[in-house]
């Protein structure tokens, strides 16, 4: 059946509008694809740029010493380095399993994700002495996993270098005799030269 003459201008107008909309959609799609490609390129190059930040030599002023002589970087320092490298919210720890509770230890596996990419996976662990301390122990387990994951980014990698450990302890730490304030037992512990011995110990001659 022929189209009535009076409808033909309307059909031609609708056809032109449809073509215009199609062209607009195609242009928008191209712009979105270009933006996505740019985002992908940025995501791929950013970790390489961030590696420069994360592999800076460790600041010796930030390093702490345990009584048994093990040196370590406080957990908050790792978080600050990650924030500087990827920005707040640009990284996170994702649990990869349930919390495993032993007699005196809790463990849980975590994965470190940065800018949507898998970086590393590690088992965190921490000790506890009563059920009341269990929530804090689980949080400490997360911090331990963060420290282990950061090794794969080169963060504070000097702390696992025997040469650095020997030099640091020679320059910044001492092994001293201390006495327990309650039991009066004496023993030798390691401490930073610029940090006083803390309670419950006091330094003896």
From TrEMBL:
Keywords: DNA damage, DNA repair, DNA-binding, Mitochondrion, Mitochondrion nucleoid, Transit peptide
Pfam families in UniProt: Mgm101p
InterPro entries recorded: Mgm101 (IPR009446)
GO molecular function, one term: single-stranded DNA binding
Compartments where found: Mitochondrion matrix, Mitochondrion nucleoid
Region (Disordered): 35-55
Main location: mitochondrion
GO cellular component: mitochondrial chromosome
Protein's GO biological process: interstrand cross-link repair; recombinational repair
PANTHER family given in the database record: MITOCHONDRIAL GENOME MAINTENANCE PROTEIN MGM101
Homology family: Belongs to the MGM101 family.
Protein name: Mitochondrial genome maintenance protein MGM101
